[in-house]
Design brief:
Layout lengths: L1 H32 L6 H24 L6 H4 L4 H15 L1 E2 L5 E2 L19 H10 L2 H12 L3 H27 L1 H30 L6
Antiparallel strand pairs: 1-2
């Protein structure tokens, strides 16, 4: 019976992990595809850091019986929105070394899109993952509150294995020649637009815009 219960807990944890990390995986893989190859591992590591932060916050909230307001968590949506807007502004105006602003037809626009990518640092990837983690918190806090050493062990096992799989998927998809070919052509615009979309979606689904 104990073994059956453990595997049932594994199934529940797996469903929770998959259901809350598909969006993060897609977004981070896009960031990897739109950035220079040497940045790929940093971006993937940023996703891992962001996920660990989400799990730690959920665990602390569960231990303290603390409830997060969805609208308050949604404020994190301004992070990817700000990064995306910054990237879009950078497509229109750029300060050249002489201190003069140059337009979209200037020499810098002929550089590869990967050289102009936004959100390509560990910190940016971690913040984007954390910002999109409102649904993760809503699922993980009740999951952790169910308690029990066996249940927590199952959750830890699934989350570690799942994060290894997510990291491999991010690096594999982001480094795929076809994906990188598309992002080389579209990445300078697609990545900022994606981040703006993530930010707006987080604000809308969390109900944060009702505060404004």
């Amino acid at each position: 019976m104990a073994a059956t219960g453990f595997w049932a807990d594994v199934g529940i944890a797996a469903a929770a992990f998959v259901g809350t990390n598909i969006d993060n995986t897609v977004v981070t893989a896009t960031l990897v595809a739109g950035a220079p190859l040497e940045r790929a591992r940093r971006i993937a590591a940023g996703q891992v850091v962001g996920f660990i932060a989400i799990v730690c916050i959920a665990g602390a909230a569960a231990a303290l019986l603390f409830e997060f307001s969805p609208a308050a968590v949604g404020l994190l949506g301004f992070v990817p929105l700000a990064i995306g807007v910054r990237g879009l502004i950078g497509l229109v105006v750029r300060q050249d070394p002489a201190g003069e602003h140059t337009g979209p037809r200037s020499r810098w626009r002929r550089r590869p899109a990967t050289d102009r990518a936004v959100g390509r640092t560990l910190t940016s990837a971690a913040l984007v993952t954390l910002a999109a983690g409102g649904d993760n918190l809503a699922v993980y806090i009740p999951l952790f509150r169910q308690g029990g050493a066996g249940k927590l062990a199952a959750v830890a096992l699934v989350f570690v294995a799942g994060e290894v799989g997510v990291t491999a998927a991010i690096l594999g998809a982001g480094r795929h020649p076809r994906a990188r070919g598309v992002m080389t052509r579209l990445g300078a615009v697609a990545v900022p637009l994606l981040l703006c979309g993530v930010g707006v979606l987080v604000l809308l689904t969390a109900g944060t815009l009702s505060w404004l």
